[in-house]
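Hi R.,

Here's the chain you asked about this morning:
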Amino acid sequence: MRHPFKQLWPFPQLWLVSDARNDAVLERALRRLPRGAGFIFRHYHLEPDARRARWRQLVAIARARGLVTILAASPALARRWGADGSYGPAAGHGLFRLATAHSLREIGRANRARADGVLLSPVYPTRSHPDAAALGPVRFRLLAARARMPVIALGGMDRRGARRLGPACWAAIDGLS
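And here is the predicted structure, written out as tokens:
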């Protein structure tokens, strides 16, 4: 059964990903995103009660701006918290699901799990994973071509990097905040 979300909204082309590094500027960054963009709330650094309180603060802004809200958690927790979808391993059913991938094998897992979108990273060198080998535009495109769902470029992304990829969905932590 398809979730109603899939019928109501086009797939967002731009995604803001939360992190401890950009927490202090998230309110401003959310207000600057265009209507229909996506917001992925991670905040793994917070204890559960503080994480839920921060989610409530930010999701109020995101909803007022018409943003898609995704919680980095199980689909069950995302549903309980009122998120539009979940982010993480490509498992679970019911809500809109974003999977993560760094390789062809993980793209295959996302395909088999029938994820609704996949974040493929790192496209470029990134502060969050300084020792990780970047895919670069060519390898990104080759891997993205194997996905059966929209692919979101992540890792060292900003507007200039997104333009170098051509028409692609993209997400950023620092590049949008």
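One quick note: The first strand starts at residue 14 and ends at 17.

Cheers,
M.
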